[in-house]
Amino acid sequence: MKLKPQVYIAIFGSRVLEDGTPSGSLARRISGALDINETFGYGLFFVTGGSTQEGIPTEASVIKKALIDAGINQDCIVSDEDSTDTLESVYAARKLLPSESKVCVCSDNYHVIRISLLMRLLGIEAIPMWITSGRQKTGTINWLYMWFRDLIATFYDVTLILGRKLFRER
């Protein structure tokens, strides 16, 4: 009898403010993930994001606290507090989550496509999930910049993954 694969809602980090609270982007990601969980009832979470500034909590710890404050059992949260960029976070998901897991990707919409693609390249079944857009809060110019920046980063990260796969196969 084959067991049904576990489904995790993956929340990718974003900036934490100096007072340790989530930025607008991170708050939207957390809220979107909680909405997804309420709708589908998955109950499992993967939170990721380190910190590059001393004295400021990791993105993952801020996400985890928000989930626990919202009533999620801490045993249902897999946490990666070491990754400081998207590619590291995707590799961490592959390492920390059970191999047959499915992952609902919860991040800003410009970022979901990249994360889903990278996960699929690493053999993780990724399901893109769309949350409330930050376009109104950040303004159209900044919003377009974020989409463009992520497009370039997608090509870069895909090249790195394919290069690693190619050289490992030799």
Rg over CA atoms, rounded to whole Å, is: 16 Å
* Overall pLDDT confidence: 92
Q: Which percent range describes the beta-strand content?
A: 5-15%
How widely separated are the two ends? 37 Å
User: How many separate helices?
Assistant: 6
Low-confidence region ranges: none
Largest sheet: 5 strands, parallel
Give the SSE order as H and E letters.
EHEHEHEHEHH
Indicate the percent of residues in helices.
40-55%
Any idea what the shape is? Answer: globular
Oligomer state of the chains in this structure: single chain
The counted number of beta strands is 5
| Widest sheet: strand ordering | 3-2-1-4-5
- Provide the structure class: alpha/beta
Keywords:
five-stranded parallel β-sheet; 170 residues; alpha/beta
Describe what you observe in this structure.
By secondary structure, the chain is α/β, with parallel strands linked by helices. The chain has six helices and five strands, in the order E-H-E-H-E-H-E-H-E-H-H. A five-stranded parallel β-sheet has the order 3-2-1-4-5. Strand 1 (7-12), helix 1 and strand 2 (44-48) form a beta-alpha-beta unit. Helix 1 (24-40) packs across helix 2 (59-69) and helix 4 packs parallel to helix 6 (140-169). It is globular, with a radius of gyration of 16 Å.
